[in-house]
Amino acid sequence: MLNRGYKFRLYATAEQGVLFGQYVAVCRLVYNLALEQRRDWWRQFKANTGSSISYASQCRELTALRAEFDWIAAVSIICQQQALRDLDRTFGNFFAGRADYPTPRKRGLNDAFRFNGRECPWRKLNAKWGAVKLPKIGEVKFRLTRDMPVTVKNVTVTRDDLGWHVVFSTEVEHDVPQNFGPAVGIDRGVVRTLALSDGTFRDLDRERLNLLDRRARKQARALSRKKRGSRRRAEAKRLVAHTKATAARLRRHWNHERSREIADAFGVVVLEALDTKGMTASAKGTAAKPGRNVRQKAGLNRAILNNNWHQFETFVGYKLAANGGQLVKVPAAYTSQTCSSCGIVDKASRESQATFKCGHCGHAANADTNAARNILRAGTQPAPRLADGRSVKRELKRVA
């Protein structure tokens, strides 16, 4: 079985939009109250009941809370139970060491509520439109941009700066095929988004993204001139958020398309193990030890983040797994300074951002393509071993 999500744009009426906001607010309140109870009251709860706080115990208290407050009872109990289930799962991940300690949900950040799939039947209106029936809300139209299974597990309504969306979570039968496709190394960069070891490149639509960036900067300057608390400031803030969300959606769509193309064409994809968080850390420093080249580092950080390296890695990873392929990650050290022909490491061979010319053997190539070939070799060559089976650490040949 394979889990898949289908996301569509919702076109709610004004009344339904108000109800969506109420659902988000109540589910956020229930989540935060349950988090506070687990954080501050669990000792008292255990002393009074003799048992620890759990999803089941908090569901029982939710029933009492709904009986006391009509405005909480006006929201479907299914969504509130799903919020409690989310919290319980988050604590499970925390205790297993997979996540940090849970934090309260904030207004405007990851606004969402979820139903069980059996509670939300959907139907196809025509080739371009569908409608889903949500408990206590009614039927809401959505733009049907691709085919989807009739049976769904969960239905999630989300809000971002571009509006409301619905996500249908499904399970589909999927037999993982044997994948005998070729291997490819990929170098992720700032100037060339993806450089493949076969000599080809995949680049983001810089022209459109730069246009959106200039628009967002202009809107941000207009926002700074608006009076705090005014309606015009709120509208200006909404415009900035909308423009940035549009750019993020374009990058995400591009990563989906390129990762699908590469996962279908290759059986093994080799990437550098990049610590994007560490690479984009601020260079400001402290008052005692101020940083150097802060503006240049900030510009590089923006360029790295705008290329969404980690997002591409995530997308190509799960698509390869579904195709029976494999994602391999190798250390990033010296891949841009090593000659892919003779293996000599010499930083002087990287003549410019785009040019690599080995000072030892004379091999010349695009610098990013050369790095991608080094990445491919590092990920596909078996490590040499001693007679007893122990691996031998490779030593790079460096120019003195």
Descriptive key words:
20% strand, globular, alpha+beta, single chain, 7-stranded antiparallel β-sheet, 5-stranded mixed β-sheet, 11 helices
Secondary structure elements and pairings:
Blueprint lengths: L1 E10 L2 H27 L1 H8 L5 H14 L1 H4 L3 H19 L15 E6 L5 E3 L4 E6 L3 E6 L10 E7 L2 E10 L10 E6 L5 E3 L4 E2 L3 H19 L6 H35 L2 E5 L3 H4 L14 H13 L2 H14 L3 E5 L13 E2 L9 E3 L6 E3 H14 L16 E2 L2
Parallel strand pairs: 8-11, 11-12, 13-16
Antiparallel strand pairs: 1-5, 1-7, 2-6, 3-4, 4-5, 6-7, 8-9, 9-10, 14-15
Helix pairs in contact: 1-5, 3-5, 6-7, 7-10
Give a quick rundown of the structure.
By secondary structure, the chain is α+β, with helices and mostly antiparallel strands. The chain has eleven helices and 16 strands.
Describe this structure in words.
It holds the Pfam family Cas12f1-like_TNB. In the C-terminal section; belongs to the transposase 35 family. Residues 309-375 form the Cas12f1-like TNB domain. Keywords: DNA recombination, DNA-binding, Metal-binding, Transposition, Zinc. This is Transposase. The protein has three domains: 2-172, no CATH class; 183-330, no CATH class; 344-398, no CATH class. Strand 4 (129-134) and strand 5 (138-143) form a beta hairpin. The chain is built from eleven helices and 16 strands. The model has no long low-confidence stretch (mean pLDDT 89). The strands form four sheets. Strands 2-6-7-1-5-4-3 form a seven-stranded antiparallel β-sheet. A five-stranded mixed β-sheet has the order 10-9-8-11-12. Strands 13-16 form a two-stranded parallel ribbon. By secondary structure, it is of the alpha+beta class. Helix 3 (55-68) runs antiparallel to helix 5 (77-95), helix 6 (206-224) runs antiparallel to helix 7 (231-265) and helix 7 (231-265) crosses helix 10. The protein starts with a strand and ends with a strand. 43% of the residues lie in helices and 20% in strands.
